[in-house]
Amino acid sequence: MSNTTTTANGTARCGKLGQRVAYACGNLGQSAFYNALSTYFVVYVTSSLFAGVDKGVATKLIGIITGLVVVIRIAEIFIDPLLGNIIDNTTTKWGRFRPWQFLAGAISSVLIVLVYTGLFGLVNVNTTWFIVLFVITFVVLDVFYSLRDISYWGMIPALSSDSHERSTYTALGSFTGSIGYNGITVVVIPIVTYFSWVFTGKYVESQSGWTCFGIIVGLLGLLTAWTVAFGTKENESALRSKAQKNGNPIEAFKAIFQNDQLLWVALSYLLYAIANVATTGVLIFLFKFILDNQAAYSLTGVIALVAGLVMAPLYPILNKRIPRRYLYIGGMISMIAGYVMLGIFSDNIIMVFVALVLFYVPGTLIQMTAILSLTDSIEYGQLKNGKRNEAVTLSVRPMLDKIGGAMSNGIVGIIAVAAGMTGNATAADMTASNIHIFKICAFYIPLVLIILSLIVFLFKVKITEKMHDEIVKELEVKLANGEIEADDAQTVEAVEAVAVAETAGTAGTATPAGQPESR
């Protein structure tokens, strides 16, 4: 009997480890995909896509494309909760999320290759048709990328209802995500220039080089999405199996707007996301046009990569001793210091790298805290409103990233055109005005946004690990007794009061959250 038990436990541990590894692999390709789509696609547009077009026409087309990307991505923001609702209402024998990893991973991977080919060279044949077909292709690409992203992070509450176990999955995803996202920053220039040399005989950025880059990103995205699809299994806990049907798209939006903690976490993260991508999106211009050392840009990716590799596995360890609220605050303070240094010492490469360490190291702390707070708000919303919306709730994060990506695309396009940072321009062509515009967009405005993000988190975000544990306990009791109703609305203060009361050892006499004492 003991041997059988030992074997069963060992098999369970191996299965759990395998699932963790499979889940972690997913964000490796997904984050690389996102960086290629949100940052380097616009760099590709401004540098090589219109290389075969008249310069005057090319400038107009760059403005049109970057403007369209911003409009498209902002418009799709309102689609993400609907996509989350579709995922939440998916019922298959493979679960709710895995089918979307398989399907959306495949379609988005094919389409990113297509946009990096200039729609198979159509851009050099007919620019009008190119613009029309580009809009259609980019919209479909962004929708299926969102389906993959939402279903990926939406899996976390389906894998575990324990807050600390969720932090393990989040840490693993963030760890590999850091490798994927920052690894692209390290290899993008070498890949593009190498394949440009292979096809043109010159070490420059060419259409062929960017096409090969797109193919590599697409293949990586496909393989990692399918790893998640075939390597994970969703659990049916009491919280999930007894949850009500997720309803129609209108109820999906209601689930978001009725969850006050979700909204406050989202606002804080949104301010951070816009600041973060606005800066990272134009760092290549800092090295190319201000420091006049584009080769050193790859070190930016190395710093970010090492920071992610160290901080992602360290996060669960730190979180056992330090509440994630304080990890978030510490990360924000570090970023503020980094921004101040970047603004003052933008022409000193040594100080720039010191500032980038302060900028990149806390990124994992901030992002993981936000993701975990959003994830824990699922049970908060279920207790507050009587509805459990997993994918809809977690669709908020990619929706926020999409806003940030749209802002990044817009900023890159504006700087590239307004400061003359397009085509064959060099650092010698930059004026004091050009550099001033760059610093305002890349450092000063993002600094203000980071400060605002910190203020919102400090004064409005109340959901903590302890509070979440008490919410889960109360939910399990209420669901077992059939007490949860859709109109049983409660406030964060009421839920928090129960957590405080039970922590003080008065759980047996405390009034249940949201219920008057007369009951």
UniProtKB/TrEMBL annotation:
Keywords: Membrane, Symport, Transmembrane, Transmembrane helix, Transport. Gene3D superfamilies: MFS general substrate transporter like domains. GO terms for biological process: carbohydrate transport; sodium ion transport. One of its GO terms (cellular component) is plasma membrane. GO terms for molecular function: symporter activity. The keyword Transport applies. It holds the Pfam family MFS_2. InterPro entries: MFS_2 (IPR039672), MFS_trans_sf (IPR036259), Na/Gal_symport (IPR001927). The chain crosses the membrane at residues 32-51, 57-79, 100-123, 129-147, 168-196, 208-232, 262-290, 296-314, 326-345, 351-374, 403-423, 435-459. This is Transporter, major facilitator family protein. It comes from Bifidobacterium pseudocatenulatum DSM 20438 = JCM 1200 = LMG 10505. The lineage of its organism: Bacteria, Bacillati, Actinomycetota, Actinomycetes, Bifidobacteriales.
